[in-house]
Amino acid sequence: MRKVAVQEGLDRVSEYLAERGYQVERIGFDAATQMRDKDYDAVVLSGMNSNFLGIHETVTRAPVIIATGMTEEMIYQQLEKRLQ
């Protein structure tokens, strides 16, 4: 089962992904310093802060999906594509 971090406030995304077999863990902005490659296969963020305190460069090499303007299905499809 793939483990995905989903930013707080994206509850519908969390539910949608869980229904499709992903292990979902909700994270807040303060979780950036606690994240490591081994912890998550991917990260879904709201896009309010697209760099998430430097997460793109320093915290994880897991794919980061910015959910702004995307439906739950679009996010799911991006995860499926990036995690092949």
Summary of the model, kept short:
The protein is of the alpha/beta class and 84 residues long. It has helices spanning 11-19, 55-59, 72-82, and strands at 3-7, 23-27, 42-45, 64-66. It has one domain: Response regulator (Rossmann fold, 3-Layer(aba) Sandwich), CATH 3.40.50.
Strand content: 15-25%
Order of helices and strands: EHEEHEH
CATH superfamily annotation: Response regulator
Query: Which CATH class applies here?
Result: Alpha Beta
Query: Helicity level, as a percent range?
Result: 25-40%
Assign the CATH topology: Rossmann fold
Structure classification: alpha/beta
| Number of discrete domains | 1
Low-confidence stretches: none
Q: What summary fits the major beta sheet?
A: 4 strands, parallel
In which order are the strands of the major sheet placed? 2-1-3-4
Distance between the termini: 13 Å
How many helical elements? 3
Compute the CA-based radius of gyration: 11 Å
Principal-axes geometry comes out as globular
CATH architecture type: 3-Layer(aba) Sandwich
